[in-house]
Amino acid sequence: MPSTIIPVDRLDPVEHIPDPGTGPAVPPPGKRPRIEEVARLAGVSIISVSRALRKPEIVSKETRARIEEAVAATGFSLNPHASALRSGRSNVVMVFMSSLYSEQFVNAAHAFSEVMEPAGFEVVLARTFYNYQREIQLTQSLTQVRPAAVFITGVLEQERNRAMFERMNIPVVESWAYTDQPIDMLVGMSNTDGAAAVARHLFDKGYRRLGFIGRQTGRGRIRQLAFEEECGRLGAQYVGGVSLPTVKSWEEGAGALADLLDSGVMPDAVFCANDLMACGALMETRSRALRVPEDLALIGFGDNSLMRELQPGITTVTCDPFEIGRRAGEMLVSRLSGDRPEQERMVLPLSLIERGSC
Q1: Are 300 and 343 a contacting pair, CB within 8 Å?
Q2: Which of 99, 134, 97, 102 is nearest to 113 (CA)?
């Protein structure tokens, strides 16, 4: 199983999404949002807020909607974890995981926990599923829980989230992208260089009609743009792509490849910019009796055990998730101990692992 190290030095064009302006980003540090603020913002009584949060079925849909908007704007919670508020700090460290279905993120969280737990911290996992609104809700909950630190399997793009983290003033490690504007610390990887390497590998193998399936925002979008650009530079034909709002399982990959092939573009190789999508795409080729790589070549991004075991094996670009988690843990333990980490921002190498799919 040949493996090639990919040189990485290019920054990822991480998009910063403006605050929609629906309310204050976060309450002032040390000040817990009060139910009176929610009631005032929603234009209802305090008892209506309490009922809507405790027994929503007895409150009208319209009133409930106004109260929910006010709660989201203020970050109010009925469960403020009082002990953490009293001390101003807890021993809880949060992990924002993009998906619990991805082996890559699970492995990173495992390695992270192996560093944090012996240092006396409890690791709590929260899933975001690549959803911006979900990220906002989780970030608002942190103003109540007051964790010691946060590790994110990604970089935050929402300006509201970024502002909330900056106001909370807790150590944060972002990852899985290479940006020059992290909130705090970063264990990065260059999606741009990785996707460009995919295009070069396919071109060197003789494939000229190249397609794409992936996620339409965040890292998926970065990988698609870099792949398209490198196709143009090489003289390969980018025949089109299918992008999804989120990826939860391999079935999305099967459906995305089906949509791409049914559109009539007829690629001879497809870049699957997500490990789950690559597995699903291979499943779809089987349902269509397509030979891989003879009829259609596939290459993924990320790695999991299915990519290694499904025949003929899926070629992929990957970054060691255990190293990402370990480095993130070491940074946070150092910072929480009152020291300065040796490195607060780093970019890790990528590898192209060649298997039978191309």
Answers
A1: no
A2: 97
pTM here? 0.80
Closest to 128 (Cα-Cα) out of 16, 218, 11, 67: 218
Peptide bond into 293 cis (omega under 30): yes
pLDDT for 154-165, tens place per residue? 999 988 889 888
Which of helix, strand or coil describes residue 116? helix
Edge-to-edge strand ranges of the sheet holding 345-347: 122-127, 92-97, 149-152, 172-175, 185-188, 345-347
Instruction: For residue 86, count CB atoms less than 10 angstroms from its CB and return exposed for 0-12, middle for 13-18, buried for 19 or more.
Output: exposed
Of the candidates 253, 304, 346, the one whose C-alpha atom is nearest the C-alpha of residue 100 is 304
Other residues' Cβ atoms within 10 Å of the Cβ of residue 289 = 7
The C-alpha atoms of residue 262 and residue 25 are separated, in whole angstroms, by: 44
| Tens digits of residue pLDDT in 207-244 | 999 999 999 999 999 999 999 999 999 999 999 999 99
Residue whose C-alpha is closest to residue 186's, from 198, 201, 176: 176
More confident residue, 133 or 123: 123
Cα–Cα distance, 170 to 194 (Å, whole number):
31
Sort strands 237-244 and 209-215 into parallel, antiparallel or unpaired: parallel
Q: What proportion of the chain, given as a percentage, has pLDDT over 70?
A: 92
CB distance 172 to 185 below 8 Å: yes
Q: Are 177 and 36 in contact (CB under 8 A)?
A: no
Task: Report the length, in residues, of the chain.
Answer: 358
Q: Check residue 29 and give its pLDDT.
A: 46
Residue partners of 226: CB distance under 8 A and separation at least 6: 191, 192, 193, 194, 195, 196
